[in-house]
Amino acid sequence: MAPSTDSNVKGENSQVSYKKDINTKTDRVLQNKKHANDIFDVTEYLQSEKDKEVIFATNACSKIFCQLFYRGDLYVGDLPEEEDLMNGDRSAEEKYSIFMRHRYNNSVELLLENIGHKAFQVKETSLCALMKFVAAEGKHPLQNLDLSEHYNFPRELLRTLVEHLLSENEDMSLLISRFQEFLEMDDVRYYVMSSVRDNIYRVMGRNKKAVIPVYQNNVFALLSTINVPSSEASKMKNFLVKQECKFVYYRGIEHKRAFEQMWLVFLKFKLPSNMYKKILVILHESIMPQMSDPTLLIDFLSAAYDIGGAISLLSLNGLFILIHKHNLDYPDFYKKLYSLLDPSIFHVKYRARFFHLVNIFLSSTHLPAYLVAAFVKRFARLSLTAPPTSLLILLPFICNLIRRHPSCRVLIHRPSTAEGPCDDPYVMKEEDPAQSHALESSLWEIKTLQKHYHPDVAKAAMKINDPLTEQEDDISELLELSTFELMERELKAERKTIPLEFDTATELLKSSREVLGVHFSLE
């Protein structure tokens, strides 16, 4: 059955009617103060069940109140109660400004509620309208201030907006990504950082420092979009609220301090395990360089380093920066690094980064021989069960370590191992490298790998039979090598044609010579 044309007409008429109604009421409010009560009809649409009506009404409210700000028709100062309008000796103009100021406050409350609306377009429109109000309040303050001494920024409105963005029950990451546009402005960014810091204290303190996954994901989504400018004040010229008075956020050092405090407060509380990984991935590039004192992260990095697994691997980057650039003294660092070496390191997503950092940590020629030997032996033992892609990293890596530390060559040239089978004194389960007896052992594992099924692995293992050159092998290209790439390389390799039979076959299982022999015997 075909749909009724009457229903289509009604739908079009209803769409035209709400737009016409809102536009008419908006014009009446702006054109004549006598029609101020029409504002109730416009704001009522903000609570409509139809998304299009809410969006249209939001834009109308934005237009109305921005105009009222510009005209100076909103009451400035401590707002009297609406019930007191009929009492006291107030002029009609003052009563109107108080009335419209209350309507403005009601609209802001409804728009903040719509930040949690189910439709993203409604959320986005409400966010943009609220940021227009932030700009309007900044240019036309609603409080009596001496602008020669004070800088006015609508911190309370922005604080409330941030509070709704950092929901405890709903993922707001998409809306936060839309909010990133406003964080490019220096004044907005500065007060957002302060608001986020206070919000974290309040929410996490109220929940007795328990993990709140949704809330903490929202906080991380917002924090990771904030980038502070350089310390030069001359570069800070992008403001939402432009005033002649120079406030603290004109100075880059204040931004760095606010950025630092915000992150430190966030990292102070317990985090979900997946959150540690997200933070540690960006810590060394996006967080530490923007802090005034990166050494304040030592507690967080130490706690992450002690968790184990992939989280410990990722924390190495931050610890490396603190140790090499900020002279951090980390006790038992190599002992902990040694304990991270287990079969899982060959299968984690961050394998390349881990081997790159371990290579740097073991690059010093001043490390004791027993320590380097323990790492070499541990890698060699793990190589027995490692996949080919990891072995192609491990074998040249082990050779490089021996090149840097000639005292470890005894692991290759140990006469006792050539006489026959013997017990390996190396203790794999020992957590302390000093007690592992690695220097008393040999690299029999590498000898075993010379019979590996993969020809590239066997070839790499055979290099240890020859005298090691002083030039180290470059393993940088091998760090990202995948199994697929290894297979592709094998398939594309050029192969020589090898003759399998000298005589031309004339039958399925006989050569021409064998056929002739059969004929001769018959004769």
Automatic annotation (TrEMBL):
Chain segments annotated as transmembrane: 300-323, 354-376, 382-402
The protein, known as: Nucleolar complex protein 4 homolog
Gene name, Swiss-Prot/TrEMBL: noc4l
CCAAT-binding factor domain residues: 312-461
Top-rank taxon: Eukaryota
GO biological process: ribosome biogenesis
Record's keyword terms, sorted: Membrane, Transmembrane, Transmembrane helix
Entry's Gene Ontology cellular component terms: Noc4p-Nop14p complex; small-subunit processome
Family, similarity comment: Belongs to the CBF/MAK21 family.
